[in-house]
Fold this protein.
Amino acid sequence: MRRGRRWLVAGLAAAIGGYLALQQQRRAEMWRVRNHAVRVLVIGAGPLGSTYAALLAHWGMQVSLVAHGARLAQLRGSGLCVQSALTRRVNRLLVDVLADVPQEHDFDLVLVTTDDEELPEAADSVRGLEPNTPVVVLHKAPVAGQSIQGYSVDGQALVGLATQGGTLCDGLLRVQPMQQVPTHLGEVSGADTQRLHQAAAILRRAGIWIEVERHIASCLTGS
């Protein structure tokens, strides 16, 4: 009798677990459908840019990823391949791989994740986009305070501070769950703007933990 009850409880637990997993899968698919109209441009396909491009693409957004050199060849040959640090499963995500910033397209969000020395070129490339397009210059670590304006594309872009990104090994991106740590986002001036909230809303729809920071300059300098 007791064994029968145990089997019954185990069966009910399995059924409930399966139902909850199915509901979660349906909600995720619903979000992907809703996100499909969102167009994001990511400039820079290193570990940081590839990580954010992967998350945005995973949640159904139309992602264009600008890359150069060997990384461009890797992406065109194999696509954006991502391995989860938790499951070790490898997925190939659908992104549009580009060598240059397309001037004829409209985007809902632009992420600039290039190295410091490539920022001036990236700044020039985004000036031809729609004036109201939110542009976020995303950093992986604090930068020198005297360079804040340059890092924010002459003050015309938002600034983000990402506390983690993935790692690239032979073209394979290995990522950690992004929900563990926040990405800080803000205006260098400290203003509360519409483009700031638009950028934050899009990134949150990809499951990224976003903290809107009114004093982003002090976060960047570590002060």
